[in-house]
Sequence to fold (452 residues):
Amino acid sequence: MNNLTFQYRTIIIFCLLLMCGCNKLLDEKSDLKLSTPESVQDFQALLDRVTDVNTNYAGSGEVCSDNYYLTDVGYAGLKNEEDKRLYTWQPDHVALSGTSGNDWRYCYRTIYSANSVIYGVEDKHLTGADDVKGQALAIRASRYLDAMIVWAPVYNKATADRELGVPLRLDPDMNPSSKRASVKACFDQIIKDLNEAKELLPAKPISLTRASKGFAYGLLARTYLYMGDYKLALINALEGLKYNNLLIDYNTLNANDKFPIKDMNVEFVFWGTMRLAPPIGAAIACIPAALFDLYEENDLRKQMLFIKNANGTIAFRGDYTGSSNGKIMGITTAEIYLIAAESYAREGDLIKAEKMIDKLRSNRWKKGSYGPVDDLGKEELITLILQERRKELLFRGLRWGDLKRLNRDGANITLIRSVAGTSYTLPPNDKRYAIAIPEDIVDLSGIKQNER
Fold:
């Protein structure tokens, strides 16, 4: 048995231990038998562990974003000092240790699982494994993109080859020491994985928890938008919409429901949720009045997405999971329409940009009240589209990346928070936009911490 094969067997056991927990794994040992997966079905079973593969995308960026605020009572009620430090944009010690569970641990756990599947199907020369390999490639890419938005500087073509990204682990061999790849190398890998995945994946998945062609194209569009390559963002967004272009007509929703938007609805391209970090819990996260006031009276999102608390604050109830227990991080058609609209506008095709944004907005407004966008200049139209993106994609884990890319391009957005009379500020392009890597990871691996 060669060394990598031995390591592969080891990592499978390691993944199972991480996924199940020791007690659960022992309870299921008669079925799993800690054996190396041998068939396509075995590898698919690894990827079908929804709680391990589809959940716990990074929540740290959302905690740092301006989608919400905490009252002094809400802030004081946070149990962990690390959450308080993250909320106020402190330069370090903003994550619990890996043993307690943090975004880094969850991210790389899923990457190791994906690596094990990719290596396994290639090592065993399995036939009929294209779909499974494509899923693993797409999942790996999604986690690396997530990591780059949270722990790396914003993508800048002029500096990407010399700024630090995250460690790129591409096989299940655990022996090589970790080191941070460049931002360019990380994005090159994300794009490479997705371009390979889109050729292997099916047009329609059996389940929305599995990757598909639409997911690969949607994730490529998200990636290129973040990078500022609007031409390629547009190409991939339009391809993604070929596989699903459906939108919810908000006139069909019931504002009296506790959660009007249901799980697994027609807008889903891929179902994934972020880690529900304590500061963004529905019970304490309040919507800023200035954000709430962006929604016009005939915009049904104002009714469907929010509810007023007894103390006069505004709470968010528009999670696409049909409950307050999960916040969607996966791809939806609404996001793809917004990427296409912004990309068309930035590329100068204003008529097509207007059509894209009208398609989305007309499904959000009270029937008979919506008038199409018309006669806006380029900058006015881009401003409108960005405002729609702000209103549509609340608590999707996307705002942090938007703040980074927009500030890179000169938006000059400054974030300010007040806690018990103390004001905290995050200026545009501050080094803290690359959130501190958990200290226990730095100590264990020796990788370089983000600059401050």
In short: The longest helix spans residues 130-151. The mean pLDDT is 92. The radius of gyration is 22 Å.
